[in-house]
Amino acid sequence: MLPVLLFLGLACFGLLAGEARRPIVFGGNALPGCRCVLLRECPKLRPPRGQPLTREIIVALQDVRCGFLGRIIKVCCEEEQPSPPTDLPLTCGDTNNINRIFGGRNAPLGGNPWMVALGYSVLGQGGQLELSYECGATLVTRQHVVTAAHCVHPDAIGFQTLKQANIGEWNTETDPDCFVSPATGRNICAPPVVVRQIAAVTWHPQYNTDGKYNNDIAVVRFDRPVTLGPYIQPICIPNNFDPNMLASSEWNPQALALGWGRTETLRSSPVLQEIRLPLVDMQRCNASSQIKLNENQICAGGVTGEDTCSGDSGGPLVATGKAGGKYFLIGLTSFGPSMCGSNGGFGVYTAVYKYRDWIVQSLAV
User: Fold this and answer.
1) What residues contact residue 89 under an 8 Å CB cut-off, 6+ apart?
2) Which GO BP terms sit in this record (predicted)?
3) Is 239 exposed, middle or buried (0-12, 13-18, 19+ CB in 10 A)?
């Protein structure tokens, strides 16, 4: 029966069976990255209306055929990938939550839908490669996150390789993520974590050029966009934010820091942690820092036992207005004192709003 089907299929195009270019898959299976559909269902390959099927067109279609429906050929129609976003979204900073980093607590499931975990390929104790979540990042478009430059720069990550981004992540040890509601006792679960591979990384060209951890910011593009929903949302980036004018501004003087880094147990937390930290003016911060800080950086913390720590790098420092509302990304965790959570030891964050134009330019890379 196979030779008859083969002859009938090619006869539809006026070709002999001996001219076939490659084996035909009769199960309707598509090659990776395409759909096996009827020719009329693939606008990219379908000849314009009224144009006869020339021999050249027929030969070209042979290379993409993937099966038959009766006597009608089916072709491998490539999935069209939407172009990556080239601007920041107008809809952003929304969370479906109304309401440990060092001294922190478990973040609510779904409460930070812009939070992303960056997974690296690292050498395990047995000499085998393992996936380890070493940095955080923040979703700013459907296909981009921002993180710290030292989370992606070769000089900083050494032999580690950035492999993937987990979007909609909460507990790195479970999938899907679930928790029991204290109010109802019901088990509430988020959708499965969305994993994307890394397509491009752009760190700031002046990273570390005029001071340690200066310009500590990078943009990472996924291989394809994510679908937005209650558990996956981009955050807003403010046009301006002055940490020295908080008393007279509409901003909340307490910012929210997030991450999976070391807690007071000195071990990384599999569950996303969050903590409220007071924002500190730069004059006070510089007085306690051994590194001269500048206007491209923000200080927060200084309270004993409350801080970001190792493994939180690249994660967001988030602010809202005094009346609540949308969430804005004001900082990226950059560096801090060697003893996390020490009294008067402030964490230093990259001031994201200072790099808004650079971020938009980097989206096209």
Assistant:
1) 140, 141, 142, 234
2) protein maturation; proteolysis
3) exposed
Q: Which residues contact 3 (CB under 8 A, 6 or more apart)?
A: 17
Beta strands in the chain (DSSP E): 34-38, 65-69, 72-78, 105-106, 115-123, 129-139, 144-147, 161-167, 178-180, 187-189, 194-203, 218-222, 254-259, 273-280, 297-301, 316-321, 324-335, 346-351
Tokens linked to 255: 């910012």
CB 199 within 8 A of CB 142: no
**67-99: pLDDT as tens digits:** 888 878 788 887 667 788 989 999 999 987 544
Which two structure tokens, joined as six digits, stand for 60? 């070209």
Interior angle at CA 109, CA 199 and CA 91, nearest 5:
55
List, for residues 155-212, the tens digit of each pLDDT value: 999 989 999 999 999 999 999 999 888 888 899 999 999 999 999 999 999 999 877 7
Q: How many residues does the structure list for the chain? A: 365
Half-sphere exposure of 223 (CA within 13 A, CB side): 10
Contact 194, 175 (CB under 8 A): no
DSSP 48: P
What are the residue numbers of the active site? 150, 216, 313
Q: What is the reported pTM?
A: 0.76
Listed in sequence order, the residues at least 6 apart from 76 whose beta carbon sits closer than 8 Å to its beta carbon are: 30, 31, 34, 35, 36, 64, 65, 66
Q: In the block, which residue shows the tokens 């006070």? A: 284
* DSSP letter assigned to residue 271: B
Q: How far apart are CA 235 and CA 87, in angstroms?
A: 13
The answer to whether 212 and 143 have CB atoms below 8 angstroms apart is no
What's the CA gap between 143 and 133, in Å, rounded?
Answer: 19
Q: How far apart are CA 325 and CA 346, in angstroms?
A: 27
CA distances from 360 to 209, 235, 279, 323, 365 (A): 22, 14, 26, 28, 10
